[in-house]
Design brief:
With 496 residues, the chain is α+β, with helices and mostly antiparallel strands. It is built from 18 helices and 20 strands. The chain has 3 domains: 100 residues, Rossmann fold (3-Layer(aba) Sandwich), CATH 3.40.50.20; 69 residues, Dna Ligase, domain 1; 285 residues, D-amino Acid Aminotransferase, Chain A, domain 1 (2-Layer Sandwich). The strands form 5 sheets. The protein has an 8-stranded antiparallel sheet, with helices on both faces. Strands 3-2-1-4-5 form a 5-stranded parallel sheet. A 3-stranded antiparallel sheet has the order 7-6-8, with helices on one face. Strand 4, helix 4 and strand 5 form a beta-alpha-beta unit. The longest helix is centred in the middle third of the chain and has 17 residues.
């Protein structure tokens, strides 16, 4: 049965390609949109047809809501999939699609607005009975700042009310640095989101970042597909994710899933969404809800044998959300970012050589190809490596093997960081938290272990010019990560 005739994919890169493939399997035509920089991109080639929408800068193309909607109307699309990023959490855009008679494959504008405002989201979570990190529920000013922090007890965290992507966040350990951090968080929030409001909450020490995938239909049904562990992060950006989380008991897993569904019902949610929690010492706390498909959704798909894009299309067409069966095995995802592993700065250039991994349980969601120009205009992620296996130990071994097979020559990548993480004692034990990358870097024994990986990952960075470590914002040279030393060593290697 064809649910829609034609879907416009309002995105680029691997997620655009991901949506296009599922739509074609369902007998649905697709329309790709592209900027000047993406004229030769894979999603342009694979869609039923493609339309140019503007210049290379996102504001001139993928963020131009008016232009994207014009193309959807012009090409006769009856639905639109926003992917993630760009317009995916733009309430006004969702509203405009609705007004134009085009189904927005995501939640309605009210849910997007409610969950996009972190203060409002906390209040809704409170009404839904979802556990919250102790904090002040409202936006704060300088007057209430010191008293609020003292009441909560240090360390505390300042967070942008309209935040996301790790922006507008400051951790404060004592009163002396509180006002400065407050002003910096406000300035960053205003620059990134046009909204300088921040709120205050207790900082949870040694937390794990665990999230629940939900799917809701237009009939009030909400189901969930278990959890994902997303604690391997640098600068609040996820790098390695896995499912299930080794720290959760069945009781906790059930409670967390029920809390996520309760929140989705409270806000009248429709479509795919992710409720994020902090987990520490047997307790979990609501962090935020992402009103879109997550980057890390493939590990849920692998564990549950489900196509989440297909389910989004189904519920968008008015069908009921399907109750998932029991999960199976273990899945891990590694993000492949075009960035210097020493500094995390973007790495630009042309992909000159590309070798792809294979074998049982290996999946690569990527839109990169040999000859592709990596430009400065968009997110640095080139793709995602996903593996699935019978258990966690096998999944780790499979992921390490696949990473060693993956060759990207022409730009620096984050792959050495991922390899170092997957082979670290802390990750393999399953007992880790969001500070794992910092600890790997500090540990001299880990540095020696990472250095031994030079031969294995040489193919990734061979023949590459390694960038100079840039100074930090305070003018001091940043500490050199263990994998940075490895990257420099690999200048001596050449791809065979």
């Amino acid at each position: 049965m064809t649910l829609f005739r034609r879907i416009l994919v309002a995105n680029r890169g691997e997620i655009a390609l991901r949506v296009i493939r599922t739509a074609h399997e369902m007998g649905i035509e697709t329309v790709a949109v592209y900027s000047d920089a993406d004229r030769t991109a894979l999603h342009v080639r694979k869609a039923t047809c493609a339309e140019h929408i503007g210049g290379s800068q996102p504001a001139q193309s993928y963020l131009d809501a008016k232009r994207v909607l014009e193309v959807a109307k012009k090409t006769g699309c009856d639905a639109l999939h926003p992917g993630y990023g760009f317009l995916s959490e733009n309430a006004k855009f969702s509203e405009a699609c609705e007004a134009a008679g085009i189904t927005f494959l995501g939640p309605g504008p009210a849910a997007i607005r409610a969950m996009g405002d972190k203060v409002a989201a906390r209040n809704i979570a409170l009404k839904a009975g979802v556990p919250l990190v102790p904090g002040l529920q409202e936006d704060i000013d300088e007057k209430g700042l010191v008293a609020g922090a003292k009441k909560l007890g240090y360390p505390v965290m300042l967070k942008a009310a309209s935040g996301g992507g790790g922006k507008g966040i400051r951790i404060v350990n004592e009163e002396r640095g509180l006002l400065e951090a407050f002003n910096m968080a406000r300035a960053e929030a205003k620059g990134a989101f046009g909204d300088e409001r921040v709120y205050l909450e207790k900082f949870v020490t040694e937390p794990r970042h665990v999230e629940i995938q939900v799917m809701a239909d237009k009939h009030g049904n909400v189901v969930h597909y278990g959890e994902r562990e997303c604690s391997v992060q640098r600068r609040h950006q996820k790098l390695v994710e896995e499912s299930p989380c080794s720290a959760l008991t069945e009781e906790l897993r059930q409670k967390m899933g029920e809390s996520a569904c309760s929140l989705a019902r409270q806000v009248g949610y429709v479509g795919a969404g992710t409720v994020e929690f902090l987990y520490s010492q047997g307790e979990f706390y609501f962090l935020e809800m992402n009103t879109r498909l997550q980057v890390e959704h493939p590990i849920t798909e692998e564990c549950y044998g489900v196509d989440l894009v297909r389910e989004m299309i189904r519920v968008g067409a008015g069908l009921e959300a399907r109750q998932p069966g029991p999960p199976r095995g273990h899945a891990i995802e590694v993000r492949i970012n075009a960035e210097d592993p020493a500094t995390y700065f973007p790495s630009l250039g042309k992909i000159e050589r590309l070798g792809l991994p294979g074998g049982p349980g290996v999946r690569l969601d990527a839109a990169m190809y040999r000859g592709q120009e990596v430009t400065p205009y968009y997110d640095s992620m080139l793709g995602k490596l996903i593996v699935h296996a019978a258990d966690r130990d096998q999944a780790i071994a499979r992921c390490v093997r696949a990473l060693r097979e993956l060759r990207v020559v022409g730009v620096l990548t984050s792959l050495p960081v991922a390899l170092a993480t997957l082979q670290s004692e802390e990750f393999c034990s399953g007992h880790y938290d969001t500070g794992i990358l910092e600890r790997i870097n500090r540990n001299s024994e880990e540095r020696r272990d990472v250095a031994m990986l030079a031969g294995a990952v040489a193919r990734f960075l061979a023949a590459e010019k390694v960038g100079v470590v840039a100074p930090s914002s305070d003018g001091a040279a940043p500490a050199t990560p263990a994998w940075a030393t490895l990257g420099r060593q690999e200048r001596l290697w050449r791809t065979r």
